[in-house]
Design brief:
Elements (H helix, E strand, L loop, with lengths): L8 H4 L6 E8 L2 E19 L3 E18 L3 E7 L3 E5 L4 E18 L13 E5 L1 H17 L4 H19 L14 H13 L7 H7 L4 H12 L3 H19 L4 H7 L5 H12 L3 H8 L3
Antiparallel strand pairs: 1-2, 2-6, 3-4, 3-5, 3-6, 5-7
Length: 288
Amino acid sequence: MAQALTEGAIGGRLSTPADGRRRRDWTGGSFETAHRPLTALVEGEIQSSRHLVMVTLRGGADRHEIWADGGHHYDGPDRPGSASFLPAGAERRLRLHNVAWRWAALALLPDETVALETIRPVSGVEDRFLFGLLSELERLDVLDGGLDATYCDTMGLAVSHYVARRFGAAPAEAGTPPPLPAWRLRRVTDYVDARLADPIRVAELAQCADLSAGHFHRAFRATTGQTPLAFIQHRRVDAAMQLLAKGETSIMDIALEVGFISPAHFARVFRALTGQTPSEFRRRHAVD
């Protein structure tokens, strides 16, 4: 069973729990957010088998005391945009004074393509990129009632590389990878087309192409000019256009049939790629 991300970590070792917890899981990690009303003192500890990236979205604490493995210590205020990183397996003890906040966290499974376990814990660093990304994940979760697994895989990989460069030694780069050969690209395309209704993860596509996730992502973009996420969205919209033109299936059912998590998510992506809403496209292209 996966350990919790932040507040209420192993065995509920916090003096008081947070409220309104929401958690979304995918193969490569988890996203979690919660809020806390004004509380004079909160004490506890955090530990996880996953790498944790934690950000304060709103509110904060007058004083945040942190002790972590390797002699790490932080003592200062917590404000919106404050970010922390805790590598997998490390322990973090904390004490919060006069805290009222909403936080968000990414828990990422260790990946051999980006070695984050060698990075020392980080606390209380202002980071606009991590703040913006986790704020966007929270917004999409509320807007769509869930998170797209492929999108989360892509963002998780981006965060891993960013954390490695920002807080540790930059990962070795092999330069621009050679393009994917036609047979590998066809295998990936066939895999996507056969599973449009299901969550499709970058790690699965990399395995299909017999490449590591990091190498596949770079090679795929070099070959197609698109990220794997953008490619999947285009294939889903292409399939949706064919179904809309037939005029036999409701837009809600089409959204689910081609793999979108909700009609709202479908409509937003469809309009971004075609300049039309699904309803407008159907009216103009439906076969009589």
